[in-house]
């Protein structure tokens, strides 16, 4: 699975002008499943997200996790993270999981996150979403779980 993690002061996702998910300080996580991914990959991603130490401690060092700071998670599906631009100017998305698998793994990530963390919001798989965020730092970290 591929994820793009942004530390945010706040973030929200809208579908059709209505907010479907929002958090205050925490992590905005864009998630993309790949064809060979399974539930173990989803579980490993959630574990990594909850333990990733990218929040400042008292000394100003990135040493705290989203759990340590009681931050929120906003999880948004984004198949374009699997874009391949090596063949020209139009990206190919053949490295993304097919929609049925992508939805199942996205739903698994959201479910596991909600089982393990208090504040979890989500986008809507396959929808045309508008995402607003205030990146804190800025801190943006790409992750790949294999």
Please provide a brief summary of the model.
This protein is of the alpha/beta class. The chain has two helices and eight strands; from the N terminus they run βββαβββαββ.
Describe the structure.
This protein has a single domain, classed as D-tyrosyl-tRNA(Tyr) deacylase (D-tyrosyl-trna(Tyr) Deacylase, Chain: A, 3-Layer(bba) Sandwich). Helices cover 21% and strands 39% of the residues. The chain has two helices and eight strands; from the N terminus they run βββαβββαββ. The strands form two sheets. Strands 1, 2, 3, 6, 7 and 8 form a six-stranded mixed sheet that branches. A two-stranded antiparallel sheet has the order 4-5. Helix 2 links the parallel strand 6 and strand 7. Helix 1 crosses helix 2. It is globular.
Features:
single chain; 146 residues; alpha/beta; D-tyrosyl-trna(Tyr) Deacylase, Chain: A; six-stranded mixed sheet; two-stranded antiparallel ribbon; 2 helices; 21% helix; 39% strand; globular
- What is the general shape? globular
- Average pLDDT number: 97
Give the helices and strands as they follow along the chain. Answer: EEEHEEEHEE
Total number of β-strand segments? 8
Helix content: 10-25%
Q: What is the CATH superfamily?
A: D-tyrosyl-tRNA(Tyr) deacylase
Total domain count: 1
State the secondary-structure class.
alpha/beta
CATH hierarchy class name: Alpha Beta
CATH topology: D-tyrosyl-trna(Tyr) Deacylase, Chain: A
Share of residues in strands: 35-45%
